[in-house]
Request: fold
Amino acid sequence: MVLFVCYGNICRSPIAEFVFRDMVAKAGLSDSIECASCATSADHLGDGVDPRSERVLAKHGISCAGKTARRITRGDFGNYDYIIGMDRRNLEYIRTLAPSPDCCRMGMLMEYAGGGEVADPWYTGDFDRAYDDIERGCRGLLHAIIAERGCGR
Ligand code: 4NP
Reply:
């Protein structure tokens, strides 16, 4: 199980959640790989996905209907195998909250696609760029999970 994390849980991590879920479904792995997304901040708790993220997802045929922002909790560390931030600040926050350094895999999404951060479109306004980066990161992450299992399931 994978938990995607960003600052507000309204722009980047919901894109990651819905893109990754779509990829997993297309790979026929929905029964064994689940995912969700959450925020480090309390700024947008209960808010729906930012309309600009919703639009870029829709452009790629993916719906995010019903998603509302929630904040990461300590309990998440017992429930997820991978807790994946979009940028360094997200990852620092995740590590601060973690009960131990080896309780689960903690990292940044772009580590699975050559490195770097997912630039925050809340500030850059570039939701297409964020989508493309997230899509590459999710593809790399899915391949890594499949490789780790040693087979398709
Ligand atoms: P996200 O983007 O972390 O990708 O959801 C942001 C959303 C809201 C804010 C910052 C980033 N904000 O400052 O309210």
Remarks:
- The pocket of 4-nitrophenyl phosphate is lined by residues 6-12, 43-44, 120, 122 (CB under 6 Å).
